[in-house]
Predict the structure.
Amino acid sequence: MSKECKGRALWWDLQRALLIALLAVVVGLAVNSQLLWRVLSGQTLNSVTTSVDGSTETILPLPVELAEVRELQDSTTLLIDARSRTAFAEGHLPAARSLPRGEEVAGVGALQAEVPLSTPIIVYCSGYDCNDSFALAEILIAAGYQQVRIFEGGFPEWQDAGLPVEGAQP
Amino acid sequence: MTSWRTMLYHGSRCLLGALFCYAGLVKALDVVAFAGSVANYQVLPYQLNFLVAALLPYVELAAGVLLLLGRQVRPAVLLIAGMNAVFMVALLSVILRGLDIDCGCFRPGGEGHTSAQMALLRDAGIMLLALVTWLGAGRRNG
């Protein structure tokens, strides 16, 4: 095949590749339109999986990034620290409330008595390798809280960004 | 093409196709978990993580299915090589920034842990498979 023919064939392949990608994107948009609409418009913060008969099966917490946690810090949003009491005492995000894994039964009960179910909540723990924030967020959602998100970067990301920490040892 | 070349071409095509079908399917079935995996890279704004998580699996699936069917092989390989190159740049940035995250390549949501270094090595292997498939498809066409 001549160089010119090869170049033309490559251009043709590229065009078809883009067309395939475009079709796949359209399918992806159609399948996930509801979720994307909720996320992009910020209407609902939790992900709801609905079964065929329309009943809600599972609700999953969505992630939130550091910049948004900072913005929401002074609002009505409640920050919950899912790490141990010791780790919390050594340092935590300003105004955060401690609710460690293992104490969630009593902790969530107390929370329900004080904090309305409509309150936005952000749960965090020890960073990306820590699953406690996700597990606690699921429990909070099951307890009726409607706006629960997880800050996956957690305390390490907050600290690494040089942001103020409460309760830190000198 | 000689028989061993034919076998190599079909083997790499099917392996690559199956790999991307699987990767696309597991991500498409759990978009939220995959969005979390994308967010772990700390590259995109919050909403864009969901957009990528909602769309990327379908591009992977489309390329994988076409490779398995042996249709539009060269465009499908181009798509896979393009996506793989982007993944490799993202993984390299993870290594350079010292982030300890799961790559989210095949199991979104962090079930199990594949380091960025391992994922980068795997992506290099995928790139090699793509090259073999591309050359094989070129010979068949040419």
In short: Residues 3-141 of chain B form one domain. The mean pLDDT of chain B is 87.
